[in-house]
């Protein structure tokens, strides 16, 4: 049977259906001839059958670099297989020649693209065209082992590590261009950052109402005014817009899924993501990681399907405010929301390089009761990761695709942040979330003081009868444990609140009588409304 190979000569590949159909037929023919690791020689113009890849990468290379013009008999891919076994052609190398090191980085990024099943498709390759162009561009004429992309990545790394300003980075680029006119470099920090974003670790800028009522996102993405308080989306001068549309506030959202997928992109980190099951302590009396605690074990017991796959991700969320200006005379509070991955061993899960910034909530005021407004993008993504998961390539398992799911197990925060995240009143006479209605407290010199800690001691303990504490004998029993039914009953009594800080809407001060009626929970939260029921 004659094989149609005319498609290999097509030069304009991006919009050619003939090329695409021919490439799919070639891959279908080559599929039975991969080795036991799923690798096969790559006949693209760059690898020229000297390097082996998986079929997905093969597809991407051929589409991007074209098919070898002198490879007329496909002896390595199913045509006249006997000739391949007797041929004296050189065997493919397992190592890297003088290829740029960024080549492997891009392969990892492409092979972990969200559209795993459509890897190498036309739409997928267009996304990476600029990266491949920079990868194939020599930094300087005659320097083939160091690409423009490689130099730019290293320069951006120095920029971050040494805290250069954007202006100093631009000045350095101008100096390099002046000293080396033929050097292939971007023109500014903005262009460099725009190119780096295509590597999959960028962020989304989401406009926020000036009163924190709502995000201009999803259903409100095209709105010009806030759906709650009707304030303009843009800054105004004398009742009119400035020359350029400038939003009042901008929320930075760093998508979670690409960062989790990168943890499985290399065999080293993919192996570490299994630590909580493979290498955890076997001694039930030793706790060195949250996997040894009761909360983790209870979650596994309630959700056995999720727990069955060791690669599913367990997350913790931390949030707190800080002053970015390092000047306490300026009242400004910015809130980062950080996620940590508890699949990793205890000596890594809290390392800065494994903490993932998810949200950067703008000031100048702390979000307070409007924390739910800012958490929306993260909660929506967490719901998708829990319910349906995302296709991910596992470098620790022959780069096979699996459905990765994720769950947020708990939050880590101080009392003020806890109030914002949970809706529990963090102040007043009943502020303790453990004691709840039974919180013992009193007013001492204008401050609320909490006492009665001796209640937790055994009934016959000598300190209970000691008068040195407050001049009284402690006879009360420990506070009762409130069931989920009790907590839900308290939540049902909470009145619906309007988000935002507008004085006519969400910013209306509530009467003291209303606050006394709701002395435990002040509001329901987005975390509580989206909790997984056992």
Description of the molecule:
The protein has 19 helices and 15 strands. It is globular and about 95 Å long. Helix content is 32%, strand content 13%. It has helices spanning 17-30, 55-65, 81-86, 102-111, 122-127, 129-136, 148-161, 166-179, 189-201, 256-263, 267-272, 275-278, 294-302, 304-308, 371-387, 415-422, 484-492, 512-517, 526-529; strands spanning 39-41, 52-54, 204-208, 215-216, 236-237, 240-241, 249-253, 313-319, 335-341, 355-361, 390-394, 400-404, 406-412, 441-444, 447-450. The chain is α+β, with helices and mostly antiparallel strands and 534 residues long. 24% of the residues are buried. A hairpin with a 2-residue loop joins β14 and β15. Strands 4-3-7-10-9-8-13 form a seven-stranded mixed beta sheet, with helices on both faces. A two-stranded antiparallel sheet has the order 1-2. Strands 5-6 form a two-stranded antiparallel ribbon.
What composes the largest sheet?
7 strands, mixed
Give the radius of gyration: 30 Å
Strand content: 5-15%
As residue ranges, the low-confidence spans are: 83-98, 114-125
Mean of all residue-level pLDDT scores? 81
Q: How would you classify the quaternary structure?
A: single chain
């Amino acid at each position: 049977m004659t094989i149609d190979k005319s498609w290999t000569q097509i030069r304009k590949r991006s919009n050619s259906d003939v090329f695409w159909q021919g490439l799919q037929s070639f891959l279908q023919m080559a599929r039975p001839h991969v080795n036991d690791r799923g690798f096969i020689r790559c006949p693209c113009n760059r690898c020229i059958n000297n390097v082996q890849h998986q079929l997905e990468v093969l597809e991407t290379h051929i589409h991007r670099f074209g098919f070898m013009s002198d490879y007329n008999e496909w002896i390595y891919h199913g045509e006249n297989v006997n000739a391949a076994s007797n041929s004296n052609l050189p065997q493919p190398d397992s190592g890297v020649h003088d290829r740029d090191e960024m080549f492997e980085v891009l392969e990892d990024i492409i092979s972990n693209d969200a559209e795993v099943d459509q890897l190498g498709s036309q739409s997928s390759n267009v996304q990476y065209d600029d990266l491949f162009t920079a990868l194939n561009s020599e930094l300087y004429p005659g320097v083939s082992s160091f690409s423009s992309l490689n130099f730019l990545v290293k320069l951006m790394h120095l920029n971050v590590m040494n805290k250069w300003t954007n202006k100093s980075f631009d000045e350095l680029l101008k100096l390099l261009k002046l000293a080396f006119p033929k050097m292939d470099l971007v023109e500014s920090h903005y262009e460099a950052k725009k190119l780096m974003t295509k590597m999959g670790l960028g962020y989304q800028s989401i406009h926020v109402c000036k009163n924190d009522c709502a995000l201009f996102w999803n259903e409100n993405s095209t709105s010009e005014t806030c759906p709650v308080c009707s304030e303009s989306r843009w800054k105004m001068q004398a009742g009119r817009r400035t020359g350029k549309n400038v939003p009042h506030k901008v929320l930075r959202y760093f998508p979670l899924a690409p960062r989790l997928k990168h943890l499985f992109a290399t065999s080293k980190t993919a192996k570490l993501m299994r630590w909580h099951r493979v290498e955890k302590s076997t001694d039930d009396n030793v706790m060195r990681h949250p996997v040894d605690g009761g909360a983790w074990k209870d979650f596994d017991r309630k959700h056995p399907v999720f727990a069955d796959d060791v690669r599913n991700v367990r997350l913790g969320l931390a949030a707190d405010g800080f002053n970015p200006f390092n000047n306490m005379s300026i009242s400004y509070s910015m809130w980062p929301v950080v996620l940590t991955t508890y699949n990793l061993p205890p000596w890594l899960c809290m390392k800065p390089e494994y903490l993932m910034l998810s949200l950067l909530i703008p000031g100048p005021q702390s979000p307070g009761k409007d924390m739910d407004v800012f958490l929306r993008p993260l909660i929506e993504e967490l719901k998708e990761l829990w319910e349906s998961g995302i296709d991910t390539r596992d470098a620790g398992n022959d780069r096979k695709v699996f459905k990765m799911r994720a769950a947020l197990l708990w939050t880590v925060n101080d009392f003020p942040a806890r109030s914002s995240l949970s809706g529990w009143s963090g102040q007043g006479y009943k502020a303790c979330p453990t004691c709840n209605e039974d919180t013992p407290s009193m007013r001492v010199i204008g401050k609320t003081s909490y006492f009665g800690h001796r209640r937790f001691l055994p009934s016959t303990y000598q300190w209970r009868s000691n008068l040195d504490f407050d001049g009284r004998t402690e006879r009360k029993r420990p506070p009762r444990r409130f069931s989920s039914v009790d907590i839900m009953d308290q939540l049902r009594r909470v009145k619906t609140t309007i988000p935002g800080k507008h004085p006519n809407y969400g910013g209306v001060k509530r009467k003291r009588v209303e606050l006394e009626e709701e002395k435990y929970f002040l509001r329901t939260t987005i975390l509580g409304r989206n909790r997984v029921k056992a």
